Amino acid sequence: MTRVNNRLFWGFWIVLGLFWLALNPGIFAAGNFFALRGQMVQLTGVLAMAAMSVAMVLSLRPRWPEARLGGLDKMYRLHKWLGIGALGLAVFHWLWSQGPKWAVGFGLLERPNRGPRPEITDPVHQFLLDLRGTAEGLGEWAFYAVVALLLIALIKLIPYHVFRYSHRLVPVAYLVLAFHAVVLLDYGMWTTPLGPVMAILLLAGCYAALVSLAGRIGAGRRIAGEIAALRHYPGVRSLEAVVKLGPGWRGHAAGQFAFATSNAFEGAHPYTIASAWNPAAPSVTFIAKELGDHTTGLVDRLKVGQKITVEGPYGCFTFEDGLPHQIWVGAGIGITPFVARLKELAALEPGAVRPEIDLFHTTREVDEAALERLAHDAQAANVRLHLLIDARHGRLTGKRIRETVPNWREASLWFCGPSGFGAALRADFAAHDMPVEGRFHQELFELR
Description:
Blueprint (H helix, E strand, L loop, with lengths): L2 H21 L9 H26 L4 H6 L3 H34 L17 H8 L1 H23 L5 H8 L2 H15 L9 H20 L8 E12 L4 E8 L11 E5 L7 E4 L10 E7 L8 H4 L5 E8 L10 E7 L4 H11 L9 E8 L4 H13 L3 E6 H4 L4 H7 L6 E6 L2 H13 L4 H4 E3 L6
Parallel strand pairs: 7-8, 7-10, 8-9, 10-11
Antiparallel strand pairs: 1-2, 1-6, 2-5, 3-4, 3-6
Helix pairs in contact: 1-2, 2-4, 2-8, 2-9, 4-6, 6-7, 6-8, 8-9, 11-12
């Protein structure tokens, strides 16, 4: 995550945790283990449900936080880590709830004598107490489901289509857990400042869950299109598709991406847009490389004239930093956003303000036709192209970039490619005193 998102992530837990502790100082004076257990069940439950609620809202791909979080890729990274945090807290919540029962059963703990329960005169409170057993039972099974579903999402060895369809069940589990939370949250908390906060979070999360179940995520940004042209580059196992768009597309900037649906069963997949926006001829170009179970075989499944739905645009990898010099690094299929920017620059009016640019394209695979088009685009955009084929020129390193671009200290670096390679370059330039937080831009295109 970026530094901003990292602060948001940890700040969320700290602020909400301190907020709960301020309203429940009795946790520090718990007279016995079972009194502490009751407080810990409440604390872990509140934190877990709050995190799940925010994660559910982020799953809707809302526009307002996208720009503020650095793009949809960064927003989904925050969504992912909030889910991981919620999962960990849910496990602790379950252990605090169930563990003492097991200990009593094994004779390790003695069940406390609660004495007579006070009479409940509040009808709402009594109604919630009557639902307690149902909420506990449903919540336990929903917890097991969420653990299984989130593990499927996190284990990347599990095929994408299994993750995609299983993840559709998360909103169902969330709705059950929201019911669990409403019933079992300490009734007195609803009349404290925590009550409105939890109510807003749970309502927002339930709304997001219902939108997801209705298949309406991103519906307002979907445009009907048709495949106008296809071009296959067998040397790099890539397919270029030009999609003619119907009315409604609001335009895009080079470096953004969109979700494309060519088969309703397989659903939407994200692709970086490899074309500049031309309102006179609304279209987008996607370049897909055979990297997974979906992209492999696209060359046989897609046909000219085929209907396709495009949703977007998304992302903030848009080359807008105002610096006089930029260094671009496109590794493999990561060259795609730079292709779009090359076309955008080539269309600028003569004399337009533009940065000096060095483009490094490193690749293991070679397709002469694709490389010729890239060289032509770079020349038309007045961009210096540095082509490195691994078998001929060796691997690209930070040292190699710095030797090629002497004034790299005055430049920003834009990277798109394998995340490990990007992390290594970022660490390398940080070690050489580049202010990477503001000048190293990386597309985190792993949405899972």
